[in-house]
Specification:
four-stranded antiparallel sheet; about 450 residues; Neuraminidase; mainly beta; about 35% strand; 2 domains
Length: about 450
């Protein structure tokens, strides 16, 4: 069990989810450990953390090269995988994001039901992008169809913006490694209206880039494969471009330390952007183990502990406990043959290292509003680790538990529990649940986060 470090900054992020102070460049390192493997080995898959706190590994292709519909969910607390409802459309080279509404969106990709050689990355065959968008509800274990993208594509990337919209960038419409078909198109999906619109294009057309968002209204697109002026073929790129939602404009920021193709990227709980793995397009069976971290406030990169397993065509997700998980992908054997992976490795960042299992103090109890929440969701709250404490400056109350943190804020007089990803609030309409990056309609919302009712 991962214990929360109770500071005022931690409380603010856990409950509210606004911009997190950026870590200093000197904060590097971290440590990797092996996690439970996926039931199904896959590369070219996508991953997203659901509103239930589980990490979902979605689609991809297996050792035979055929596109997969498999979806498997990892519980980082129980350290177990479960098979859940498969996607209606088998596919790889897709992207997936967690929406502000708590659902997971699987977008685009390509679908090949036939076996193909996996000795190239992606599997060797002419690709045809699809526009399909399918939406998974973690609470009902069901998929539904959403409005398809205006532009069918594979090798695309996406991120959920601070406005609740889903921004889909880049990709390819034609055969692999044909720069004439690389896209700079950016299309935006609104979950509330099930509609698409087009915004300012990427300055650099690219395929197999990675996109991540920050809570201050920016989206970063990193690396990938692009067309080089005057060259007959594609090339890897280290270019990083930053999109500002409020102005619909792009800017170039400090490039990756090295080019990345078919890598994975996430935003960590420390606010930094982590990019890991990837392959060399000239040798798809030569994967990388490198991990680099970008600090937005200083526009600079720093090194992080490399993955134990070099891999490309992987997926990654940040778990509710702050660890970053590298999932599946492809590596190479001693004979430089592709090996499709089911292995999972977890990066623990500085400041999020696990404590030894805690035991309940003999006098530890829940009282008043905290007892009410524990009565309502005892499995979520868990066992208390300390008695209720008070901040003499603002009058707030906090209590650490094995499941997370109980908080009462004097300023608005409601009691809440957070597991680090979701918050349950016993407010004016009873117990309600939201993501930490959302607000209820009756809450103060100075950061203009997506509103749920």
């Amino acid at each position: 069990m991962y214990r929360f470090v109770v500071t005022l900054a931690a409380i603010a992020w856990l409950l509210i989810g606004p911009a997190i102070p950026a870590a200093a460049d000197a904060q590097s390192g971290g440590s990797w450990a092996t996690a439970a493997p996926m039931p199904t080995a896959r590369a070219g898959l996508a991953a997203a953390t659901g509103s239930d706190g589980r990490i979902y590994a979605i689609g991809g292709y297996g050792a035979d090269g055929a596109s997969a519909a498999a979806v498997e969910a990892y519980d980082s607390t129980a350290k177990t995988w479960d098979t859940v409802a498969p996607m209606p459309t088998a596919r790889d080279a897709l992207t997936a994001v967690a929406g502000a509404d708590g659902r997971i969106y699987a977008i685009g990709g390509e679908s090949s039901p036939k076996a193909r050689s996996v000795q190239t990355a992606p599997p060797a065959t002419p690709f045809k992008g699809i526009a399909t968008v399918e939406v998974y509800d973690p609470h009902t274990n069901t998929w539904t169809a959403a409005s398809p993208m205006p532009t069918a594509r594979w090798g695309l990337t996406a991120a959920t913006g601070s406005d609740g919209s889903i921004y889909v960038a880049g990709g390819c419409t034609g055969t692999i490694c044909d720069p004439a078909h690389f896209l700079n198109t950016v299309e935006v999906y609104s979950p509330s209206t099930n509609t698409w619109r087009t915004v300012a294009p990427l300055p650099t057309s690219r395929v197999y880039a990675q996109a991540v968002s920050t809570t201050d209204g920016h989206i970063f697109v990193l690396g990938g494969c692009c067309k080089v002026t005057g060259a007959s073929g594609p090339a890897l790129t280290e270019t990083v471009e930053e999109y500002t939602i409020s102005t619909n404009t792009w800017a170039t920021v400090t490039a990756l330390p090295s080019p990345r193709f078919s890598s994975a990227a996430v935003t960590g709980h420390d606010g930094r952007i982590y990019v890991m793995g990837g392959t060399d397009i000239r040798n798809s069976n030569s994967p990388q183990a490198t991990v680099d971290a970008y600090t937005t406030s200083s526009n600079s990169w720093s090194g992080v502990a490399p993955m134990p397993t070099a891999r490309g065509a992987l997926a990654a997700a940040t778990g509710p406990d702050g660890r970053i998980f590298a999932i599946g992908g492809r590596t190479s054997s001693a004979g430089s043959k592709a090996v499709i992976l089911n292995t999972v490795e977890a990066l623990t960042l500085p400041g999020t290292a696990p404590d030894a299992p805690a035991t309940q103090p003999a006098s530890c109890t829940y009282v008043l509003g905290f007892k009410t929440i524990d009565d309502l969701i005892p499995a979520k709250v868990g066992t208390c680790l300390q008695n209720e404490g008070h901040n003499p400056t603002n009058g707030d109350a906090i209590q650490q538990t094995t499941g997370g943190l109980l908080v009462w804020r004097k300023i608005d007089n409601w009691t809440a529990f957070t597991d680090g990803y979701r918050t349950w609030v016993n407010g004016p309409t009873g117990l309600q649940q939201r993501l930490n990056t959302q607000r209820f309609s009756w809450e103060a919302n100075p950061d203009k986060l997506p509103v749920v009712h």
